[in-house]
């Protein structure tokens, strides 16, 4: 089992910045892809950004040039630096660990964090 704990959400004015963090904990595991997704009220959950274990990144068009995803493999932690925030970025942001493998059992697994609220408002 892997647990994901997000932090860093909050209330920020338009044009401001926030940095989200997500730490994965557990035993004898490795994670191929970590990422951030978000869900606004009444909308479907959508991809924000992902990063693989070798640093390949993917961003939603709506956040390109404003958000940066990074990862510390030694700490099993993924970050999302969000700049130039807009009201439409308001959502609950979820951390995801995809294609998690364990040394003691076969298969690949997918885990989600509990979410952290980001509100962009003046």
Give descriptors for this structure:
mainly beta, 122 residues, 59% strand, four-stranded antiparallel sheet, seven-stranded mixed sheet, 11 strands
Molecular structure report:
With 122 residues, the chain is mainly β. It has strands at residues 2-7, 10-12, 18-26, 29-39, 46-52, 57-59, 67-72, 77-82, 91-102, 109-112, 116-120. Strands 2, 4, 5, 6, 9, 10 and 11 form a seven-stranded mixed sheet that branches. A four-stranded antiparallel sheet has the order 1-3-8-7, with no helix packed on it. A hairpin with a 4-residue loop joins β5 (46-52) and β6. It is elongated and about 50 Å long. The mean pLDDT is 95.
Task: Give the gist of this structure.
This protein is an all-beta fold. The chain is built from no helices and 11 strands. The protein has strands spanning 2-7, 10-12, 18-26, 29-39, 46-52, 57-59, 67-72, 77-82, 91-102, 109-112, 116-120.
- What distance separates the N and C termini? 40 Å
Helix content: under 10%
Measured by DSSP, the beta-strand proportion falls in: over 45%
Oligomeric state of this protein: single chain
How large is the count of helical segments? Answer: 0
Largest sheet: 7 strands, mixed
Total strands: the figure is 11
Quote the average pLDDT.
95
């Amino acid at each position: 089992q892997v647990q994901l704990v997000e932090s860093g959400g909050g209330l920020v004015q338009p044009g401001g910045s926030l940095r989200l963090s997500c730490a994965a904990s557990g035993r004898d595991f490795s994670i191929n892809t970590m990422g951030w997704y978000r869900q606004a009220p009444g909308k479907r959950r959508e991809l924000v950004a992902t990063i693989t274990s070798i640093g390949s990144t993917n961003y939603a068009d709506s956040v390109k040039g404003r958000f940066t995803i990074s990862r510390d493999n030694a700490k099993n932690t993924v970050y999302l630096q969000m700049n130039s925030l807009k009201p439409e970025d308001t959502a609950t942001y979820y951390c995801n660990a995809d294609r998690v493998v364990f040394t003691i059992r076969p298969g690949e697994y997918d885990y989600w964090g509990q979410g952290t609220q980001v509100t962009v408002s003046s």
